[in-house]
Amino acid sequence: MNILETQGLYHDFSGLKVLFDVNLQVEAGERHAIIGPNGAGKTTLFNLITGTYKPSRGKIVFKEKDITGEGPWKILRQGMGRSFQITSTFDRMTAFQNIRLAVLSTRGIRFNLFRKVDSMPDITEEAEEILRRINLDSDRDTLAGNLSYGKHRSLEISMALATNPDLVMLDEPTAGMSKDETHYAVELIRRLTEGKTTVVIEHDMDVVFSLADRITVLHHGTILATGEPCDVRDNQAVKDAYLGEMGGEEDVCY
């Protein structure tokens, strides 16, 4: 069963065509990677699915409901969470406060200065548990802006997952990370997304082939190929499009 579909999706910016007839299917429970060279339309596709942009043409279906053109917060409420390529935490708030805001959002509780959030023990307990799961409990009271880059990214990914989404969308989750930070992030994503449907844009082929059950390749705004990692690796059209730049684990298909 598909949890997400795009049907005949097109998008352009002031006449500049970016996506052409994109028909994407994401099965419930799978980790699905979207890859492609710079300018292929990956982030635009993400922004359409998550409601940041409205498509020029076509339809987006999430959990069998047409969500085309709906706003990000309305889509979030329906069970879709996302992280961004650029970190989007609240840097003047602590790690704990950031996670707590995400938990409040899940519960449909608006934060304001007059609401005594500290008197909600269930909210506090859930936020504390998430911090423990991502090994940031020792940084509980550290301002997000003072965290190391890797921890900052982990916090942002966890905020997307703190909303307990049916589908989590991750945009370049390891961008800018060191090798050790990337390894930690991959293990974190694998652990936190167990049993959840995940769509990830990623440029690091080692990350893609270690995480993905299926891969979709975008090229010049259209889908070039979709399949299991080994099938995508062996696809001649994909090889030609990447001109030999398809890295990744050499033994992934063995």
Structure report:
By secondary structure, the chain is of the alpha/beta class. It has one domain: Rossmann fold (3-Layer(aba) Sandwich), CATH 3.40.50. It is built from nine helices and eleven strands. The protein has helices at residues 42-49, 72-77, 95-106, 121-133, 149-162, 179-192, 205-211, 229-234, 236-242; strands at 2-13, 16-22, 25-27, 31-35, 57-62, 65-66, 80-82, 167-171, 197-201, 214-219, 222-227. The strands form two sheets. Strands 7-8-9-4-10-11 form a six-stranded mixed beta sheet, with helices on both faces. Strands 1, 2, 3, 5 and 6 form a five-stranded antiparallel beta sheet that branches. β8 (167-171), α6 (179-192) and β9 (197-201) form a beta-alpha-beta unit. The relative contact order is 0.17. The model has no long low-confidence stretch (mean pLDDT 86).
What distinguishing features does this structure have?
about 250 residues; alpha/beta; Rossmann fold; six-stranded mixed beta sheet; five-stranded antiparallel beta sheet; 9 helices; 11 strands; about 35% helix; globular
